[in-house]
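Hello again, I could really use a second opinion on something today. My current little project is about how a certain protein chain folds up. You're getting the sequence in one-letter code plus the fold written as tokens. Here's the protein in full, and shout if anything looks odd to you:
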Amino acid sequence: MIHFRTAVDEDLLEVKKLLAASALPFEDIDNLISDFEIALVDNKIIGAAGVEKHFPYMLIRSVVIDPTFRNKQIGNQLIHALMDKLYPENYKGFYLLTETAASFFTKLGFMPVQRENVPVEIQQTTEFSTICPSSALVMYKLNSNNN
């Protein structure tokens, strides 16, 4: 059975290993681990997704599922767990960058946006400005709880 919870400091090494195994960046997550949700099976981390808060936007990042557990809707559940927990009404929406999972995020309601139209709060993140290549697609989803 899959269990979801917020990551703690002790999960950092395993989340980094999972990201590295999928060739995803992990260099700058040390101070972000408490803003990650993780998926576990038998107390083993099999998925993770994090968020950076840059008011009034959030940047979803480092979404990874162990290849053994892919195509089982775990990523979908993980993103919903992350967004349900971190869906404060005063944030306008969520951005993300992806090179390989655009169709996955489109199914979750994210839409492609031009890099030049991304707010400066997101453009200044390490993920946007340094870690992800300029070829990465930028996607956005409006926070439907924002009034």
